[in-house]
Amino acid sequence: MKVAKKITTVRKAVDSAKRRGQRVGFVPTMGYLHEGHLSLIRQARKYNDFVVVSIFVNPIQFGPREDYRRYPRDLRRDLKLCKEAGVDLVFAPSVEEMYPQPFLTYVEVKELDKHLCGASRPGHFRGVCTVVAKLFNIVMPDVAYFGQKDVQQARIIEQMVADLNFPIRIRIMPIVREPDGLAMSSRNVYLSEEERRKAPIIYQSLLKGKRELLAGRQVGRVLKELARDVEMAGGKVDYVELVRWEDMAPVRKLAPGERYVLAMAVWFGRARLIDNVVFRAGERG
Ligand code: AMP
């Protein structure tokens, strides 16, 4: 496995893989890898000849009062996991390598960032799109893998790739969970023992909400009830929302056949956790 800190090294390695006729799969991450990341890497390994993983905590997607500085990092462990998973190339650049000064160009996808995390984290998706566009231009993969865990991000990247004609296929993979249902996340390390015990309420209430929505209960009532369930367990709700997959816009009524996302962001102590369930109206609960 090769580890590259420089853009030119990545370009050379991918270039020679492509000249060998190899198909390139790419998994962008912020590191501190867990089974969620590894599921994307395994999928990339299965369907591609050359697998690239990037590990970069992207400063421009964090707000000024967010956790950029204390975001968990462990490059040595990440490299070991990548190696064991059969990754061919890890790109772990410095901030200076990615953002030499001056840096003046940003990528913004309109509309899809108006709600959910886009509303509570202004500028977040602009930072995400900018770094992902840069990474796509550096790695030039055939296929890139994203998790449904960050569902709004996945939808926005899908749109960016379509709008800007990146010749890259986007694959969105299912959420990997702990045995008790908590969605795996690098940020779960922020949880105290007690918070960790309570956090599975997020997924439990999402499942309950999905069931009730499919049973025809009023959307507004269901959302209120979910918020109450989570607050009763000690979480502080940032948002609970039902949006259409297509435009990530809130809805108050289901239309048959349409695809929806029931999503929430909840603070447990200093950890802001997100999770969601995707379903089609009319499917069986
Ligand atoms: P991150 O390192 O948090 O930026 O995540 C990198 C990629 O892994 C993103 O596409 C995430 O959606 C995905 N990911 C993170 N957690 C999970 C999970 N529990 N299940 C599936 N994918 C995940």
Describe the structure in your own words.
By secondary structure, the chain is an alpha/beta fold. It has 2 domains: 2-173, HUPs (Rossmann fold, 3-Layer(aba) Sandwich), CATH 3.40.50.620; 186-280, Pantoate-beta-alanine ligase, C-terminal domain (Pantoate--beta-alanine Ligase, Chain: A,domain 2). It contains 10 helices and 9 strands. It has helices spanning 7-19, 35-47, 75-84, 95-98, 116-120, 124-139, 151-163, 193-198, 201-214, 219-232; strands at 2-4, 24-29, 50-55, 89-91, 143-147, 169-173, 236-244, 259-268, 271-280. The protein has a 6-stranded parallel sheet with strand order 1-4-3-2-5-6, sandwiched between helices. α9 (201-214) runs antiparallel to α10 (219-232). Adenosine monophosphate (AMP) is lined by residues 29-30, 36-37, 39-40, 146-147, 149-150, 173, 175-176, 183-186.
Please identify the top-level CATH class of the largest domain: Alpha Beta
Report the radius of gyration as a whole number of Å. Answer: 19 Å
CATH fold title of the largest domain: Rossmann fold
Residue share in helix: 25-40%
Helix-strand pattern: EHEHEHEHHHEHEHHHEEE
Number of domains: 2
Distance between the termini: 44 Å
Number of helices: 10
The CATH homologous superfamily of the largest domain is called: HUPs
| Helix-strand makeup class | alpha/beta
In which order are the strands of the major sheet placed? 1-4-3-2-5-6
Output mean pLDDT.
98
- Count the beta strands: 9
Query: Which regions are unreliable across 5 or more consecutive residues at pLDDT < 50?
Result: none
Major sheet details? 6 strands, parallel
Oligomer: single chain
- Portion of residues in beta strands equals 15-25%
Ions, cofactors and other ligands present here are: adenosine monophosphate
- Tell me, briefly, the overall form: globular
